[in-house]
Amino acid sequence: MYRPEHSKISKVKALVESSGGWRKVFSNYPGLSHAIEKADKSNASNPPQVPCPRSLQGKTKFRLFKDWEYTGGGYHNDEGAMPDGIEVMTFMEGSKNGALDVIIDILGGDLRSVTKHQIQHVQQQQQSVREQQLDPQEVAQRQTKVEKVFSRASFARDSQAVHNYLRSRGLQGDFRLLPDALGFADPLWYGDDTTTQPLKLAGMLGIMSDSDNRNVTLHRTFLNPTTGAKAKVKQPKQLMQSPSYIGGCSIKLDQPIAAGDGALIGLCEGIETALACREATGLPMWSCYSNTLLEMVELYDGITNVVIFADKDVSGAGQRSAATLARRLRTAGIDVQVHVPELDIPEGAKSVDWLDVYVQEGALAFPFGIPPQFAVNTGVTLPEEA
């Protein structure tokens, strides 16, 4: 029988290997069955791209790796490489524990039936055939593109176009104090599945980094280079195609601040929402880009207190992701507050966030704040000082 020191992940991988492999898992999971059908019908060495299996949006968002039947791995143009089936299922389910439970359920498995020998066999295979991410040439190409944009970027705080854009969104701070994690690029080339030629625009950049502070990819907000208005394109906000998996990453606007024997950080989805929370509360913030990445975010060691400013979505996705993240962090012993806007979602809109709260009701509508002497300096007078 299995030993307690073997992780749940190791046991699930052994269960998959002994129960028909990732084909059996994915074939019995509706969101991924289409990708398998396309892969089976294609004669190409790499499976073709399909719409996002989670949102069903886009035409060419996701593909399985060529060795997916062994690794379970795939690649999402917005989320990056997912090196194995557990990461793919985590993306689909929104949490790793949820993904593991779904895999076990699909296989009709009982982890008590997994033997030590089965676990060791899978681990030996993984040592000899490393879990695949992207073809080395594709990794290099994506890395080169990210580094090229990064090398030509300047700080957002020095860009009048960024200042104009943020002011148009209702932010009030001294944008000369914007953090180093935000940049500006001009030109910044834009393209999507509707454009035949790239468009020459400008853009605000956000550096996506992992919990070890390694830069992974860039978030782009496309702007009119003259006025700073948000560009009138289909997808004015995009992540650059990442050379590696971005689950766990975030745009770290600030460093955590001391809180008792630990440290405190605020989390939310969008960059503009994070900037609004900084101005309203003085709280240091990380932006996680989407509800999916918010749920997966990984913290620095030593962070003991977290405040989550959740989006309020008609679908409930923002609220669910915030609640799932809170459960995970609390299980790890972290003190967590979750705040959801009380604003009603306007008819025809998909959501409201804390930027909407800030614009419509001001800083006093925020349920959390820190003493001004510990606050991030945004150039805005906090309510306590008013």
UniProtKB/TrEMBL annotation:
The lineage of its organism: Bacteria, Pseudomonadati, Pseudomonadota, Gammaproteobacteria, Alteromonadales. CDD domains: TOPRIM_primases. InterPro entries: DUF7146, TOPRIM_DnaG/twinkle, TOPRIM_dom. It comes from Neiella holothuriorum. Residues 141-243 form the DUF7146 domain. Residues 265-363 form the Toprim domain. This is Toprim domain-containing protein. Pfam families: DUF7146, Toprim_3.
